[in-house]
Amino acid sequence: MKRLLFLQQCFSISVSIILVLTALAKIISIAQHRRFLDVPDGVFGQLPMRETLALAATMEILTAGFMFVRRKRLSAMVACSWLVSIFVVYRMLARILYVPGRCPCLGGVLDWTGISPKVVDAIPVALLWYFGVGSLTFLFLSSYASKDSPHQAQAVSPTTNSQAEVT
Predict the structure, then answer these.
(1) Would you give the end-to-end CA distance of the chain in angstroms?
(2) Which percentage of the chain shows pLDDT scores above 70?
(3) Were both Cys, which of 34, 64, 73, 153 would link to 16 (CB 3.0–4.6 Å)?
(4) 114: which residues sit within 8 A by CB, 6+ positions away?
């Protein structure tokens, strides 16, 4: 069980770092006053892309901070799953609404690298997979561990202190 908690902490820290980096990419794009930022967002209608990226960056920074502070708790995995679900729904709506062009998920800061647009578009999808599969795996494993031994589940349960006082 200690190994699972250690892996969960490593996962939370890695996700926190990645979220801060992707938020910084969005903030840099906003600061550079890119042309595509003035275009209305295809999913949110009249909301400019600049505001959509600012909202996404804010959610990423808040989730990263929460996950880092709560890295020993399952609430970090719930927060990660929540953020992934929001981003997946956004991408699904973009497909359903036939939004043209590439997803500005990274704000266009990688354009100068010369990396193929297909690769740049695949990076956020790969990150969503990593975040989603990782957080759901830890949630599943913790629920499986709690069925095996209620005392072991306390190590990762968000209510460890209150359960310890009761027993």
Answers:
(1) 19
(2) 84
(3) 64
(4) none
